[in-house]
C-alpha cells in the first residue's frame, strides 16, 4: 500500500495530543519526522510518539527529501509564512485553522503551485455525522432550511495561552468562531452575503472573549452563533427547516473512536421525545481528515476544498471584525 510521509511542524499540544496520533492511524500515512526550534523538545516528542526523526529547525524539516506532506499546527500568525515555506520546498500542507490572520494574508497562498495540495484543517467536514447531516438536508426531509443556530464556548483565562494573545491571532472568533462559519458554509452549501456582530473584549488581553454573530446567506437563510473563550464549555448545532429540525449532538469535539448521534425532530411534541435518533459509526475525525488528504496526495480522490475555500472562510471572519468596528452590517 502506498503511503505519504508526514513531517510535523512543532510540538504544539493539538498536534501531540490529537492530530499526529490520528495521522499515524491513517492507512495511507506514516509520520517520519517532527521539528521544533528546540531540538530537545523535538527529540522528546519523537520519543513519546515513536517518530523516527527529530529536527531542531523547521528549515531542516522542509529540506528533508523523504517527506511528502507537512502538518502545520503553529500559532495563527505563522500559518501562512510556514505553509508557504513548506510548499516552496515541494511539500503538501495540512494547516490548522484559521489559515491566516486575514483574507489578504491568505491570498498569498495563491502563489503555491497548483500541484501542491493545501488544506485548512476543518476536520469536522470529514466526520460521518456532518456528512449525514448534509445528506438529510439535501433529501428535503427538513423542508426548506432557513436557520442554523450554533454555540461553541470554553473557559481559558491563561495569559500565556496563545488563544489569549491578540497580536498573534488569539481570541474566540479566530479560534472557534470559525467553526460555526464553516457550519453555515458546509450545510447551506453557500457563502454568506453579509454579517453583523456584537463583540466583547477582555480588558487585559484585548482578545474577543464573547461574540454573537448573525450571518445572512441570502434567500431567507440565516445563521446565528455565539462563541466565547470565557464561558462554561458548550457546543451545539441546530438546523431548522420548514418541516423538521436536525441537531448534531456533539458537533465539534466529537469523541475519537466513539459513536455519535444526530436527531431529526418535527417539533411535535416540543419535548423531543418522538425525535428520530440516528447513531453514526465510531471514528476519529482527525484520522478521517488525514486519510482523505493522503488519498488526494496519492491522486486517488480529489479534495473539494483548497486555498480558495480557505480564502473565502477568511473573508467571513474579516467581515465579522469589520462589523464589530462599524457597529453595523458588513458585506462579505
Question: How would you characterize the overall build of this protein?
Answer:
With 332 residues, this protein is an alpha/beta fold. It has 2 domains: 4-123 and 289-313, Rossmann fold (3-Layer(aba) Sandwich), CATH 3.40.50; 125-283, Dihydrodipicolinate Reductase, domain 2, CATH 3.30.360. The chain is built from 9 helices and 15 strands. A 9-stranded mixed β-sheet has the order 14-13-12-11-7-10-9-8-15. A 6-stranded parallel β-sheet has the order 3-2-1-4-5-6, with helices on both faces. The N and C termini lie far apart (44 Å). The mean pLDDT is 97.
Element string (H = helix, E = strand): EHEHEHEHEHEHEHEEEEEEEHHE
* CATH 4th-level superfamily of the largest domain: Dihydrodipicolinate Reductase, domain 2
Strand order of the largest sheet: 14-13-12-11-7-10-9-8-15
Count the domains: 2
Determine and state the CATH class of the largest domain: Alpha Beta
Overall shape: it is globular
Helical content (DSSP H or I, runs of 4+): 25-40%
Indicate the CATH architecture of the largest domain: 2-Layer Sandwich
The major beta sheet can be summarized as:
9 strands, mixed
Mean pLDDT: 97
Task: Fill in the CATH topology of the largest domain.
Answer: Dihydrodipicolinate Reductase, domain 2
Distance between the termini: 44 Å
Low-confidence stretches: none
Describe the secondary structure blueprint for this structure.
Layout: E1 4-9, H1 13-24, E2 29-35, H2 39-49, E3 53-55, H3 58-63, E4 69-72, H4 79-88, E5 92-95, H5 103-106, E6 118-120, H6 128-139, E7 145-155, H7 172-188, E8 194-201, E9 208-218, E10 221-228, E11 230-241, E12 245-248, E13 258-265, E14 276-283, H8 285-297, H9 307-326, E15 330-331
Amino acid at each position: 500500500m502506498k503511503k505519504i510521509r508526514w513531517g510535523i511542524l512543532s510540538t504544539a499540544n493539538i498536534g501531540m495530543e490529537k492530530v499526529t496520533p490520528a495521522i499515524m492511524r491513517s492507512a495511507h500515512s506514516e509520520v517520519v519526522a517532527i521539528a521544533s526550534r528546540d531540538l530537545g523538545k523535538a527529540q522528546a516528542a519523537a520519543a513519546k510518539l515513536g517518530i523516527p526523526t527529530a529536527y531542531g529547525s523547521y528549515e531542516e524539516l522542509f529540506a528533508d527529501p523523504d517527506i511528502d506532506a507537512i502538518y502545520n499546527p503553529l500559532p495563527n500568525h505563522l500559518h501562512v509564512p510556514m505553509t508557504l515555506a513548506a510548499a516552496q520546498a515541494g511539500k503538501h500542507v495540512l494547516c490548522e485553522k484559521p489559515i491566516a490572520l486575514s483574507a489578504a494574508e491568505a491570498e498569498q497562498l495563491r502563489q503555491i503551485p497548483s500541484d501542491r495540495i493545501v488544506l485548512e484543517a476543518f476536520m469536522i467536514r470529514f466526520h460521518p455525522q456532518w456528512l449525514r447531516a448534509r445528506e438529510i438536508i439535501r433529501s428535503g426531509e427538513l423542508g426548506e432550511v432557513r436557520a442554523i443556530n450554533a454555540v461553541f464556548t470554553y473557559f481559558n483565562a491563561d495569559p500565556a495561552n496563545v488563544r489569549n494573545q491578540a497580536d498573534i491571532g488569539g481570541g474566540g472568533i479566530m479560534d472557534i468562531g470559525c467553526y460555526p462559519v464553516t457550519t453555515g458554509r458546509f450545510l447551506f452549501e453557500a457563502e454568506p452575503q453579509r454579517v453583523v456582530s456584537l463583540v466583547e473584549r477582555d480588558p487585559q488581553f484585548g482578545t474577543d472573549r464573547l461574540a454573537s454573530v448573525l450571518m445572512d446567506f441570502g434567500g431567507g437563510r440565516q445563521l446565528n452563533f455565539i462563541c466565547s473563550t470565557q464561558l462554561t464549555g458548550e457546543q451545539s448545532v441546530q438546523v431548522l427547516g420548514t418541516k423538521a429540525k436536525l441537531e448534531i449532538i456533539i458537533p465539534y469535539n466529537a469523541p475519537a473512536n466513539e459513536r455519535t448521534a444526530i436527531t431529526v425532530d418535527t417539533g411535535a411534541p416540543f419535548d423531543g421525545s418522538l425525535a428520530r435518533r440516528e447513531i453514526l459509526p465510531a471514528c476519529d475525525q482527525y484520522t478521517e481528515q488525514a486519510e482523505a488528504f493522503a488519498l488526494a496526495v496519492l491522486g486517488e480522490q480529489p479534495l473539494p476544498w483548497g486555498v480558495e475555500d480557505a480564502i473565502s472562510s477568511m473573508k467571513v471572519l474579516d467581515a465579522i471584525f469589520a462589523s464589530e468596528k462599524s457597529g453595523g452590517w458588513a458585506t462579505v
